[in-house]
Amino acid sequence: MLKQSKKQAYATSAGPVLIERRSVGKLLTMKRNYLFLPVFLLLLQTNTLLAQKGIEGLISAEKKFAAYTAENNIKSGFLRSFDSAGLVFGRGQAFNAIERYTKAPQSPGVLLWEPEFAVVSAGGDFGFTTGPYTFSPQKGDSIVDAGNFSSIWKMNANGEWKCMADMGVSYGKLVHAPVTTVERITLPAKGEKILYDSLLAIENTLNGALQQGADALLPFVAERSWFNINNSLPVKGNAKIREALKVMPAGLVFQTAGGFLAPAEDLAYVYGKVVNDKKASNYMRVWIRENGKWVIALQVLNW
């Protein structure tokens, strides 16, 4: 999550069980049943946890990711939580997270974060979280950097939440207020669908217009929109986003690189490259449809 994904930047820098039963007398059968009961309950509990869909499952996945990383180390935390096709970003490029962290040395750095805002698809199996992070060079050291992370999550075929993408912004020494509650949004079951080709067309039109200035984003901003902007604390809602975008340089060149559509087709994320003069960075947008309009639910913007 530096001016790439700060989480990934700090890390890179430094079959089912088949039980066959045979009746060998009533007493032995009862004994076996009692022996297998704890195993059965454990499997039942595990499957229940893995199958936790919806907004609470999404938030829980992010919190478990953060807790495991804090208790162990950044490298193992990311390797444990990312999907095999998950992406991290830096200098205008996207990298496979598992490949990148497998090759990365283990860092003594301490990366702490927590979700503040979460949105989940009506299908309960795809969504995003965003919130503040802090980084210290090692345990006991002072915080040297802070910012906001944004993570895209998808439930895989095994019923596990896995991180599909992670990008963040740094705001350095600025202080984020303590998170007291996680704002939750679950998209409606009969919400408007997204056509991915139409979304890409909107992206291309918007990115072209952004070369003339940040006002091109405003038609796609709603009161529930959340923007994480380079060197700024996060902002939400029309008025605050309009004010925050005044610091965005004119002439930024945006290039869409890829994205993913939720299985319920109501939520999609797109990522790409931002070029500011000769410097390349990354951006991410999460889109929804609301009241017949395209809405940016989340914008992550570095330059």
User: What's the CATH class label of the largest domain?
Assistant: Alpha Beta
Mass-distribution shape: globular
Rg, Cα atoms, Å:
22 Å
Number of helices: 7
Q: What structural class do the secondary elements suggest?
A: alpha+beta
Please give the largest β-sheet. Answer: 8 strands, mixed
Distance between the termini: 13 Å
Task: Please trace the helix and strand order, writing H or E for each element.
Answer: HHHHEEHEEEEEEHEEHEEEE
Describe this structure as you would to a colleague.
The protein is α+β, with helices and mostly antiparallel strands and 303 residues long. It has 2 domains: 6-12 and 52-186, Nuclear Transport Factor 2, Chain: A, CATH 3.10.450.50; 196-301, Nuclear Transport Factor 2, Chain: A (Roll). The chain is built from 7 helices and 14 strands. The protein has helices at 6-12, 26-50, 54-71, 74-81, 97-103, 196-209, 238-244, and strands at 82-90, 93-96, 110-113, 117-120, 126-136, 145-155, 161-170, 183-186, 226-229, 235-236, 253-261, 268-276, 279-290, 293-301. The strands form 2 sheets. Strands 1, 2, 3, 4, 5, 6, 7 and 8 form an 8-stranded mixed beta sheet that branches. A 6-stranded mixed beta sheet has the order 10-9-14-13-12-11, with helices on one face. Strand 5 (126-136) and strand 6 form a beta hairpin. Helix 3 (54-71) runs antiparallel to helix 4 (74-81) and helix 4 runs antiparallel to helix 5. The longest helix has 25 residues, at 26-50. The two termini are 13 Å apart. The model is unreliable at 13-37 and 39-49 (pLDDT under 50). InterPro entries: NTF2-like_dom_sf (IPR032710). This is Ketosteroid isomerase homolog.
